[in-house]
Amino acid sequence: MNAAAQTTPEIRRPQLGWTMLETPRFLSETALLALAWPMLAKAPQGDGHPVMVLPGFATNDTMTVLLRSFLARLGYQVFPWDLGWNLDQHSAGENGEHLAARIDAIAAETGRKVSLVGWSLGGVIAREAARRDHGGLRQVVTLGSPFTGNPRATSLTSLYELLTGNKASSEKSAARYARGHHPLPVPSTAIFSRTDGITAWENCVSETDDRTENIEVHCSHFGFVANPGVFWAVADRLAQPEGQWRKFDPKGCFAAFYP
After folding, report:
1. Is 211 exposed, middle or buried (0-12, 13-18, 19+ CB in 10 A)?
2. So which domain of life are we looking at (predicted)?
């Protein structure tokens, strides 16, 4: 069976109402983050290993500054992706070589394996990096990342094609989405929201095994980089000792964020 035949065109883009609510929801989630900041200080602390945060489509490291500040507060060595605006292969490299070089440089600088936290398209790229060469990687966490399903099931398809020059329905894109749901060779967590206003949530979940999981949150798409529930889940995932990965157990004051 060819890659195109394995995609799922029945998955549809989010309803227009959710898309139109993205901005006000993001603003409210940012305000809620400010209120929850003292409680987030009780999140699981890090062990100091390096974490690189990858921004979403058509954004840069500016959009992930709140998440990176939070992770640095927990004790991690936090790195931006430092590759400019995320325009897919134009930024990461046609075969991911720019991102691979960035991961290698961080691993060499710190002497430790790197965890990747990728928002939206950043998570798609992070998963592909783990499939290509996972030797320097510790784990991957994706935030509302459409790495499988129907490549056209997003509110930004036309903009993506305009800015990147890629076609969502191309053979290359179909191949990317057809294999995207398979578990990675390193522990991975896919955080998704059924009320995502930008990309279909069905595109953002993986097959699961003993080191692969999906976590549902109440969140907008832009809120993945400003939502207290997302921040707590990311902190919990990164805090696990290397080689002792376990699945997420929602509890405590942020449990209401996880349906």
Report:
1. middle
2. Bacteria
Per-residue pLDDT of 220-253, as tens digits, reads: 999 999 999 999 999 999 999 999 999 999 988 8
Taking Cα atoms as reference points, which of 178, 120, 118 lies closest to residue 146?
120
pLDDT at 3: 36
| Distance between CA atoms of residues 17 and 150, nearest Å | 20
Distances (CA, A) of 232 to 39, 54, 56, 122: 10, 18, 20, 19
Q: How many CA atoms lie within 13 A of 108 on its CB side?
A: 6
Residues in contact with 150: Cβ distance below 8 Å, sequence separation at least 6, in sequence order: 7, 8, 9, 10, 11, 12, 177, 200, 202, 203
Domains and CATH numbers, the chain: 4-39+49-237 (3.40.50.1820)
Report the distance separating Cα 125 and Cα 239, nearest Å: 22
What does the DSSP 8-state code read for residue 239? T
**Parallel, antiparallel or unpaired: strands 114-119 and 188-192:** unpaired
Residue 64's φ and ψ, nearest 5 degrees, are: -105, 15
Q: Where are the alpha helices (DSSP H) in the chain?
A: 16-20, 22-40, 65-73, 89-92, 97-110, 121-132, 157-164, 171-179, 228-238
